[in-house]
Amino acid sequence: MSLTRPRLRRIVTATAVAATGALVIAGCSSGSSAQNIDESAPKDLKGTVSLWHFFTGREAGVVKSAVAGFEKANPGVTVDIHAGQDDEKLQKAISSGQNIDVGLSYSTAIVGSFCSSGAFRDLTPYIDRDKVDLSDIPKAVRGYTAYKGKRCTLPALADVSALMYNKAAFAKAGITSPPKTLDELKTDALQLTTYNADGSIKQLGFNPLIDFYENSPEHWAPMIDGRWLDSKGNSVIGTSAAWKKLITWQKDFVDEIGYDKLKAFTSGLGQEFAADNAFQTGQVAMQIDGEYRTAFIKDQKPDLDYGTAPTPVMAGLGHYGSTYIAGNVAGIAKGSEHPELAWALLKYLSTNTDAQVTMANGLKNIPTITSALESPKLEVDENYKTFVDVAGNADTMTSPGTADGAAYIGTFTKFWQAYQEDGGNLDQKLQQLDQDIDNANQLAGP
């Protein structure tokens, strides 16, 4: 796993897609991906097929290794790999009509815009024709790779979140096990927090500020089994008693330490994806993070004594052992001149167990098929295993796509950031949040 590439991160990705997704939507209509396919798959594949992906450096080599397995199984096919193509480049290329066969994105947020606009072709005819059994793909993953019943993408690895905790700090504070509930998390965090003589924070048990590193509505949703939109695409966040309880819990936590103290402390912390990450330096004793952190620690802080555990949940609401999952998605571009070759490559990368294991072992992300999660070839240590286990949990969840690139998550985050600082009438603010999300969804279209 590269220690520099953008992770599959929440609002950064969602808002970027919302801003650049118009490039794709403006460039094609929902009918542009219509196609006629042969009644049966070709028995002998020959030719060259292109693959555009965002990986660079060592990670690009991992993808190349997985592709080599496809070429070995199909000796008549050559894969022309275009590495380092981020989502914006991919969107612009598809919109301009370039010959792209398979596009691999780091964001689930593109699915709504790519499916609704026709930028990626509908895969259902291929899946039905070849009788591809998608049951090996976990339910939540099947959910985020389709939009309003249209499947235009398949998964290719994912990120999940869990709790990371500093074992040495726990032992010093006399805490014997990681917290399972939010009440336990807060109690342990306050016990682990220490202060300088001037009252400023020296070490923080857990940073409750929204948008600190991976603190986001998505990664906190499993704490309460939080839901986002109803069947018509309208926001249910503002009317959710569960979300209100979580926001209230978080605000009380912030207030108990002090918003200004937390902001001052946070402003002095290192960058999330740098060696001076606050968990890696010991300045924060617990944090919600992704499986990729295990690779960062191995590379940057190999002597760190830490453990991992499922994300704590609010008693009576969340399902302990579940998580939030989102990840890389891939599809066949609307302008593909070799759709059968593209389909064969896409199907291999997304549904072949060995291909998924090869990529997961090299990239240290999470496989998106159960057979790979359970494969004895998957390299799993004690801390990485937590992420593998929560990824396969039946209650693991994701967030639904929308035509504007799941921009509602960005709207929710901005609301929460403002509320944790200023407070106010939460009921009124939540009502306004729903209105803002619904208005934006209506403007984005179907």
Automatic annotation (TrEMBL):
Q: Which UniProt keywords apply?
A: Signal, Transport
Q: What does the sequence similarity comment in the record state about its family?
A: Belongs to the bacterial solute-binding protein 1 family.
Residues of the signal sequence?
1-34
MF annotations from Gene Ontology: maltose binding
Which Pfam families does this UniProt record tie to the protein?
SBP_bac_8
This protein's superkingdom? Bacteria
InterPro entries cross-referenced by the UniProt entry: SBP
Gene3D superfamilies given for it? Periplasmic binding protein-like II
| PROSITE patterns documented for this protein | PROKAR_LIPOPROTEIN
What's an example GO BP annotation here? Answer: maltose transport
Question: What GO cellular component entries does it have?
Answer: ATP-binding cassette (ABC) transporter complex, substrate-binding subunit-containing
What's this protein's name?
Answer: Sugar ABC transporter substrate-binding protein
